[in-house]
Prior knowledge:
Layout lengths: L5 H37 L10 E4 L3 E4 L5 H7 L4 H32 L5 H9 L10 H10 L7 H25 L2 H9 L4 H12 L1 H16 L3 H6 L8 H6 L9 H26 L11
Amino acid sequence: MIPQPKSSAKVLSVVKSAFKHLFLIVMSIVSIYPVLWVVSTAFTPGETLATGWTLVLGFVPVPTSPTLEHLSFVFGWKDFGLWLTNSALVTSSTVVATVAITLPAGYALSRRNFPGRSQAMFSFLLPQMFPGVVTIIPQFLIFATLGLVNNYLGVIIPYTVSSLSLSVFIMKSAFDSVPKDLDEAAIIDGASEFKAFRRILVPLTLPHVATVALWAFMGSWLDYALAHVMLSDNSLWTLPLALYSLIQPNYTLFGTFAALSVIMAVPVFIVFMVFQKYLVSGLTAGAVKG
Length: 290
């Protein structure tokens, strides 16, 4: 086989790199365009779609006469503050409950061998084996029997349970990656097992804790289907239910719909930016030298 000249190999490498970057640019545009479309609609006068826009660069929609009327309407909505509070309460409760259960569960599955350990791990996988929509009716019947329909617990408990399926395995993997020498050395030095867990293991697994918190946050903040079934009382609505109420059989308030969508996306963006530093890399690299 005749080896290729170095110049030809270099050209081939440049061509491959160019196609790769071109593909990434195209896919980025495809992903970002719907977001630009929604944001532009939120600042476009009227409640219609694709009117009052100027296409910058041929495809970026920019409102010809930007307006804040839709945002003002949403913030002035009679029950907007109540629905925002409901969403914050449900989401924060889900995140706290998920982290509080996941940390000791992941620790036990990682550091302990006990009867039924394999069965316990399998039980956490069960909720992921069925689509969420399939379980809504059985959940409703159970929670109706317990008197938890039109109750915050009627959504907090299912959100927490659905988050545990992946979160427990994330934390188990995190604790598995921390050498046992660390917590064993702390216990030998006089620390209690709980103190070693709190002061050593938890700080070293913060990136995974952040991932668990984000998973629980996204699942509860943006959910509509379960909340629609469990929370029929208008005073208990969350923001996704308020968003859906803008879609009526005979009309849709597209501008207001887009404005509320943008408002709902802001906390997601903020939470991601806050936790981003914990998601960059693990903190256990080089903790113990073998």
